Amino acid sequence: SIINKRGIFVIGDTVYQVTQNLLKEVTGYNKKNLNLISNLDTADNAKGINVINLSRGSVPAYSTSGWRYSSNGKKRGQTTIYYSNVFYNPYPYTKANVNYGINVQAQTKNFWGNWNYDGGECWISGTWTYKTDLINISNLGYCCANNYPRNYSYPFHPNSINNLWISLSPVTGISAIYPTTYVLTAPTAKAFSSLYFSAIQWNVSVPGGSSGISCNCP
Fold this sequence. Notes:
It is built from 1 helix and 18 strands. The chain is mainly β.
């Protein structure tokens, strides 16, 4: 309803602002929020504030397997992959924040037909190739690409998992507490052109499952 030279407009009860690099939204329309939104650069979900960077990296994304069931229908599991990257200003980008995480849920159906997180047995393994495209800072021309083929397996077999969250370094494959943000730094005299997965495959199997659980995120 309202739009001005600062790129501010209102749809329903939400205030938006579009700038060269950011799309911002604040839930709850009032005059205070019209002034507040111009100074925002980070999200705060508790306050109804969302900020999407339009130029420095990827919008946070996920891919999920959906629930997969064992052959007897008494166990099920689901795998979800989360990934995002945001480059540090100024351009050319020599650093980036990267988040790469996995959530595995395993449930068992009880006597009454309800699904419970009771630590169902399952096996987890994943492989991926992470790719960094680089440019030369001197002339901003394309330089080269680095490929990082990596894999991860949950270290306890057999294991008991109900709702597992872990973060992984896409470059080293080392796991950490979720959510962990990894800082990538370009080699000397180089800058990042793009960061992405060229291949990714996760498999999580529950006992009795015919095909296990897989999540493809190319």
